[in-house]
């Protein structure tokens, strides 16, 4: 006769309940190798992302600048030595003063920059998606040289942004640019593109469209190739036109990809620093500055105002977080899982 012995009961706590390992401890004991593999990534993220993030938030609550960051001010005496004295204007914690000054317009041009940033972002993303979708539809069809066209259309994406920025800035040069040469050949007077706020912003948007359309095209083309071909065949048999197939099959099938690339494109364009900085340089008179270039100039031009630049950075992050939350909520209402 076989005797069955029961497993020993877990030890009891003074309160009479059995002491079970915590959920975190059980996960560690069962999946320690996974935790060990994730640890290097966590360390890298902590160094490259989390520390700068929290450091920036802390600086935005101070009045730290290049002028008041030193604890002591040292001057050289006539004897050749140094005389040091305590800095009377040493930086200090100021709470939310920087945010109040920025949002009230006492410091910088936050609201003007925000408006330009929104126009810049909306214009770029709309054309990115529209042109990318059109090119993806074209390349998804059987055609001669389709592989060559794909390579050529992806080239702008492969070129470094600063190279494209300098190239397009030369194209819009008032005296030697290709754009004005074309206008002159048509009998139209040359345009000083960077002398007007809106023509200057137009040149930056054109440059960014050139850079951003290939990404949208590749992502949407990949999404189209996941749509079953049987759906198009059945719709064609039922007599659906090309527009009806596009509207009722292609667009719904691309919705998950579209929602993702639009979100990514919005965040990338909102923070697209090199195009504005290199193409328009904020001309004329800061009329094409966006938030990220304004933050850069606060941190690295004139008397460097680190606290003000950090404040701009936190506000930019906050705007994008709020946008992402509302975007996610809108997707969930439409039944999208994201």
Automatic annotation (TrEMBL):
A GO CC term assigned to this protein in UniProt: plasma membrane
Pfam families given in the database record: BPD_transp_1
Region (Disordered): 1-21
InterPro entries hit by this protein: ABC_transporter_permease, MetI-like, MetI-like_sf
Location in the cell: Cell membrane
Alphabetical list of PANTHER family matching this protein: ABC TRANSPORTER PERMEASE PROTEIN, DIACETYLCHITOBIOSE UPTAKE SYSTEM PERMEASE PROTEIN NGCF
Protein name, UniProt field: ABC transporter permease
Species per Swiss-Prot/TrEMBL record: Micromonospora sediminimaris
Taxonomic lineage from the root: Bacteria, Bacillati, Actinomycetota, Actinomycetes, Micromonosporales
